[in-house]
């Protein structure tokens, strides 16, 4: 039984999963978005393979703690997932600055700009999930 963390982007979805003890988060993949049907089919494969019981979705809030357009899209995505996979528990996790933090970590690891672009969403998903795991 694991927890899955998602970083939603316009073109990609970064995916991370917890270990079975729900202590650490590992980056799993980046899903290239190709329509709701495709996105949910790929998520279902992950949910089934890793026996996911909880899903944590990054909620991009504004710096004043308000929810803007991107945040609303995350909330709608969560609602669609709840209808598609009603047996799972869902959480929204404040993701302010996670992409910037992920970028810094990748730069410190000397990952090229091209390489960072390929994994930034997965790295952000790790941070979202790790922040959630630290609270449970």
UniProtKB/TrEMBL annotation:
<dbReference type="GO" id="GO:0016788">
    <property type="term" value="F:hydrolase activity, acting on ester bonds"/>
</dbReference>
<dbReference type="GO" id="GO:0000967">
    <property type="term" value="P:rRNA 5'-end processing"/>
</dbReference>
<comment type="function">
    <text>Could be a nuclease involved in processing of the 5'-end of pre-16S rRNA.</text>
</comment>
<feature type="domain" description="YqgF/RNase H-like">
    <location>
        <begin position="1"/>
        <end position="102"/>
    </location>
</feature>
<dbReference type="InterPro" id="IPR006641">
    <property type="entry name" value="YqgF/RNaseH-like_dom"/>
</dbReference>
<protein>
    <recommendedName>
        <fullName>Putative pre-16S rRNA nuclease</fullName>
        <ecNumber>3.1.-.-</ecNumber>
    </recommendedName>
</protein>
<keyword id="KW-0963">Cytoplasm</keyword>
<keyword id="KW-0690">Ribosome biogenesis</keyword>
<dbReference type="InterPro" id="IPR037027">
    <property type="entry name" value="YqgF/RNaseH-like_dom_sf"/>
</dbReference>
<keyword id="KW-0540">Nuclease</keyword>
<comment type="similarity">
    <text>Belongs to the YqgF HJR family.</text>
</comment>
<dbReference type="Pfam" id="PF03652">
    <property type="entry name" value="RuvX"/>
</dbReference>
<dbReference type="InterPro" id="IPR012337">
    <property type="entry name" value="RNaseH-like_sf"/>
</dbReference>
<keyword id="KW-0378">Hydrolase</keyword>
<dbReference type="InterPro" id="IPR005227">
    <property type="entry name" value="YqgF"/>
</dbReference>
<dbReference type="GO" id="GO:0005829">
    <property type="term" value="C:cytosol"/>
</dbReference>
<dbReference type="GO" id="GO:0004518">
    <property type="term" value="F:nuclease activity"/>
</dbReference>
